[in-house]
Amino acid sequence: MLIPLLLISGTHERKYLPLTPELHEAVDRVNRTWNSKIKYVSDMDHYGIPEKWSYPTDGKGDCEDYAIAKKTDLEKLGIKSYFVFCRTPKGKGHFVLQVFTERGALVLCNMHTDIRYASDFIRRGFVWIKVQFDDGWYSYETGEKVKPPRRRIDFIKDKE
Prior knowledge:
Helix content is about 30%, strand content about 25%. It is of the alpha+beta class. Strand 4 and strand 5 form a beta hairpin.
């Protein structure tokens, strides 16, 4: 099993949060809330285009839309999180959100009601490809800066 370089090395500065019961509860609550609020709909079915990153204002979205909503709520709580592009065990591209803690990376995923550690996903056949830090996207395998997945991410959201 390939252990991603960014999980074991200091190739990029991350903020590791203490995993307190309060942090775990807050992250879990955000994940469960958005997983229940959004109905999964592909961008092609929703917008008629293959890919669109957007905040799910109409209660519909795909995996990156779930991640955007969750990231927005975590930021309001002062919890730093990171987008991750991965592949599912069936090889499909997928986006999740990750919170680095001193006990491991917690993952918020629209495919799972509960939050899980990144190591659990990797053991189940998910492959971490890229992670977005403040200064860009990085390869999980090499730790090197890479191009963003598919297109530049623009967060278009009416915050009011």
